[in-house]
Structure formats: C-alpha cells, structure tokens
TrEMBL record:
The lineage of its organism: Bacteria, Pseudomonadati, Balneolota, Balneolia, Balneolales. It comes from Fodinibius roseus. This is CubicO group peptidase, beta-lactamase class C family. Residues 64-320 form the Beta-lactamase-related domain. It comes from the Bacteria. InterPro entries: Beta-lactam-related (IPR001466), Beta-lactam/transpept-like (IPR012338), Diverse_Enzym_Activities (IPR050789).
Length: 354
C-alpha cells in the first residue's frame, strides 16, 4: 500500500513538473530587448484610456512607467532606460540572493546571530543573540539600534515587525560572510546576466557605511526601470527564466505570503513577507506584492492578471509620488483593459530613444 502511495506521489510530481515546463514554453520573455504589443488593443487595452492614465501620472510627477502583460510591454513612457537609484528595492533583490543561497545550502535560515558571530554596538543582549536569519528576512529580529524605533530588548525575536535598517544591513553582512560572494557581483552573476538585464553591472552598486551607527553597511544600487521589469517578470514566472529555474518557486511562494500586518498611520493596512511588501487593499484580489523604495520607486507583481508594473518617481526622489497615488495609477491601468487580447498579437521592439 505504501509503495503504491509513493508511486502515486512520484507520478503526480513528475506530471506537475511536465505541466509547469509545458506552460513555461508558452511564456514570452524579453531577449536582448523588450518586445511591445504593436498597439495596446492587441493586448486588450484601450489606447485612449492609457493616454488618460498617462496624463494623470504625469500630473503627479511620475518619471517612468512600464506595464508588462504576459511578458511583453503594453505601454511604457518616461526614462525607462536610464539607470537610477533604486533605494530600498534592493531588499527584494536580497530576497533573490537568499533564495538561491538557501537552495544551495550556503545559508541556514535557522542560524542565530550568535552562531553566525554577528555583532552590534552596543553589544547584543542574550535575547538578541537568539534572533535567526529568518527573523531578519521578515524584519522581526527584535534588534533595535540607531537611536530610533522600539526600545532595545522590548520584543522577542519574531514577535514584532519593525522596518528596521539594522536587520537589512546585517543580512548583507551575513550573505557575504556565508557565501564568500560580494553582493553587487552576486546580483550581476546570479540575477542580472541570467535574465538578460540590459544595464546593470556590479559597478552600479556601492556600500554606504556609517560606522558610528552600525558595523553593517547599507547597500546603494542603481538600476534602470526596464531591468527592474525583468526582475519583476522573474518573480511572476515563479523564479524561472526560459529553461532555467533561477530561484526556487517554493521560496518565492513563501516570501510573498504575509508574515506580519502593518497599518500606515491609522487606516492603511499592508502586509510584509520576506523582503517583499504584500498588498492588503484593493490590489490584494490579484495577489499583488511589490518591492518599494523611497519616493515610490516600485516593482509590482500581479500573478492573477499576469502583470508586472514598474513605477519610477521624479528623479529628485525626495519629491516622489505618494504611494497610494502609485496604486491609483496601477488600478487605472487595470481598468483600461477593455477586452481579451487577440489570439495572435503582433509585436515590435521597444524604441527606447523616444
């Protein structure tokens, strides 16, 4: 009986894998450049309504926008080919590096700060030493430094969510310590090159050290919107790019499920997974999750709609766009879809010089 059950499970896994590979073969991926539907109507969108959304986004100060549907560009405008500072989007890039390292057995998410010899100033308490890598990934280590946030020692590891720069910076130190790889070079080798990023290379990343605040530097990275769209598409495709499984699908699923609920102000709910934000409002019906940086630089993934959306704010990102306005842009673009796409749409390479 047990042998029969095991055989059934094995056949089911093989069948599911074959179906997944078959589905992947039908997906569109950009090669040396992105392909765009010949007209938005070819993808089922209204050109007129998209123009209205563009006017709205321009009025807010949006600098670059890309809407990807089924792996091709529906519409894009602004400075999508220009390399810009991505702010905290880098944390979701860290998610990909950790997913790969964990799959290879290079990092153990159950390892504690004490076991990894991670230090802080003032020194970690016995409680703080028990924080695990998984707690840092979910911003719930309970290690509070840098003179702000909750009082040190006020929460057990894993008990309380707090958007904590110490956690994210320590993750970078742990990654480099445990893998022997430099973060910026790892992004280039393990992510950028396999998915054909057009602009990113390791020299677009720099450490930002403030030793009087933390032993662990932060990570400043510059990327183009069109490369961020590739990153979003990699997650939309569950970590697979053409014939290569770059990031474990199980890791992506675990990372984009809510671990903590947070309320901005007193009325705007939002969820956090593992280095990804997860929508808890109107966009949640599409299982939407996103990477976000100051000024509303963002990469949105909407699995139920097969959509990736990239938004860049004004290049003076301190004058960026309010987050809820970015969501409104995305919602209006979704509403601009008026019909199903044609069965055999025509495509043209994106003209980035426009």
């Amino acid at each position: 009986m047990l042998r029969t059950e095991l055989l059934f499970i094995f056949v089911t896994i093989i069948a599911a894998d074959c179906i997944a590979q078959s589905n992947q073969s039908a997906f569109i991926y950009p090669d040396s450049t992105w392909m765009q539907y010949a007209t938005p109507e070819q993808a089922g969108w209204s050109s007129k309504k998209i123009a209205e959304v563009k006017d709205f986004a321009d009025s807010l100060g949006s600098d670059a926008i890309m809407l990807i549907y089924k792996g091709a560009v529906v519409t894009e405008w602004g400075h999508n080919a220009e390399v810009e500072f991505i702010a905290s989007i880098y944390k979701s890039l860290f998610n990909s590096l950790y997913g790969i390292a964990i799959e290879k057995g290079e990092i153990d998410t159950s390892a504690t700060l004490d076991e990894l010899y991670i230090r802080a100033q003032p020194p970690l308490s016995e409680k703080e030493k028990k924080a695990k890598v998984v707690h840092l990934l979910s911003a719930s280590s309970g290690v509070y430094r840098q003179g702000r946030g909750p009082d040190p020692g006020s929460a057990e590891p894993g008990e309380q969510w707090y958007y904590n720069g110490w956690d994210f910076n320590a993750l970078g130190s742990i990654y480099e310590q445990e893998t022997g790889k430099i973060v910026f070079k790892a992004i280039e080798k393990l992510i950028a090159k396999p998915i054909g990023m057009q602009d990113y290379e390791a020299t677009w990343g720099h450490y930002f050290s403030q030793p009087w605040r933390s032993e662990h530097p932060s990570y400043n990275i510059w990327m183009s919107a069109r490369d961020l769209a590739r990153f979003g598409l990699l997650y939309l495709r569950n970590g697979r790019w053409k014939d290569e499984q770059i990031i474990s699908a199980n890791w992506i699923e675990a990372s984009t499920k809510p671990k903590f609920r947070y309320v901005i102000g007193k009325e705007i709910p939002i969820h956090y997974g593992l280095l990804w934000w997860i929508s808890a409002n109107e966009l949640s019906q599409y299982d939407a999750y996103f990477a976000s940086g100051v000024g509303s630089q963002s990469v949105w993934v909407l699995p139920k709609l097969d959509i990736v959306f990239v938004h860049r704010a004004s290049r003076d990102y301190n004058q960026g766009v309010y987050g809820l306005d970015v969501e409104e842009i995305l919602l209006q673009l979704i509403e601009a879809k008026i019909d199903n796409s044609v069965s055999q749409p025509q495509f043209t390479p994106v003209n980035w010089s426009q």
